[in-house]
Input
Amino acid sequence: MLVDQHSYTELRKLLQFGETTCVHLVNEYLQNIHAKNPKLNALLSVYEQGALDQAAEVDQKIKQGNAGKLAGMVVSIKDVLCYKDHPLQCGSEILDNFHSQFTATAVQRLLDEDAIIIGRNNCDEFAMGSSNENSAFGAVVNEDGENRVPGGSSGGSAVAVQANMCAVSLGTDTGGSVRQPASFTGIVGLKPTYSRISRHGLAAYASTFDCVGVLAKNVEDVALVMEVIAGADEYDSTVSQQPVPTYSQQLNAEPKSSLVYFKEVLEGEGLQPEVKEAFVSKLEELKKAGHQVTEMSFPLLDYALSTYYILTMAEASSNLSRYDGVRYGYRSENANNLESMYKKSRAEGFGEEVKKRILVGTAVLSASYHDAYYLKAQKARRLIQDGLNEILNDHDFILMPTAPTTAFEIGSKTDNQMEMYLADLFTVPASVAGVPAISVPMGRDQEGMSIGLQILSKPFSEDKLLSFSHSLLDQ
Ligand code: GLN
Output
């Protein structure tokens, strides 16, 4: 099938030369979805008719010569991004039967350029998780191993791309949710600079961390999507006004770069030996290719995980207070007064992980613990941010494995919260600092599971990040 062999950028050429049609491509993706989704569980909704209708319209536009930049790009979207009149559940029962009343800016911009939305991706409930086992709709399965997790929380997005159910997926990344699943499924995942893409229409988890991110099989497609969805938006007062480069036109630069890695990363106990080997040999390869590679110490790395979890749980406890049984979705039938309706709706509608985070978040914000936890974590955040930015001012990129291990077995970490959180060890620093970071594949372990290389760069230097990644991969 065409869609199994070609990137969007290649398919677009075939469309342009009349060698295929959008309707044909959508049918191929649908064939993959029907064959694979029952087992992989990557899509919660498939917009079969909607996608076919859109495809027919775009085919007309291509014939007339007025099709948009992403004509015929088939996209799936994580279940935390609004798409008007389509279901939105954030992987949760608390949003049972809820339909979006408007479309997220990032999604709207895709539609405006004639991308085709094929479905809604499974994810961890309210994007809280590292394995996609926290979804109210069941775990997502990694196509590379039937007992392996795909990573989380954008696990459905990653698998939909991995299994050719779509060309590109929009995920979200608060602490690694685009990069870590990209790493576990052997694809590319970009978390841009915080505020690079509007959060309008993204159901909030932790607002000072949340970023829309892009998952695809190659850097070119990510670049193309980024230049369409990034930039100023009147619906989000926090989004950056900085102009958006045409990333996809700037992928050819191949300067020699100054690269840094942290010795603490290599010394960490939980680092899977094959991940370490792949990373060390990647560093060697880069040195040989003429890049400057410097080892540095970054002791603050140890504090990134606790800083991240304290702050995100605090923000989540506030953001999720809106799900009260009154305004959205699920309402308990066992309540006999207003207060018990709030309590029971929330107790019955939210899953265990979400409830745990709301409770911890409420505790760290409470008068007696605020200074000891929340305030302290804010200070630690600033130190980590300043520390990383200082390094990135003197060097082009910081490199580390995307995750300490490859995709683990389903169920293997669900009883050990600390181990699960450790899966985010290397992705949270960029989130705490708000800097852009990408995961690109760098080999496989002995069991065939993919290993990801993570690259961090200065705020708003996605152009450089993408062209460096492109030089590693696509050429
Ligand atoms: N695994 C992290 C968490 O559970 C990251 C999630 C995310 O980026 N949305 O918070």
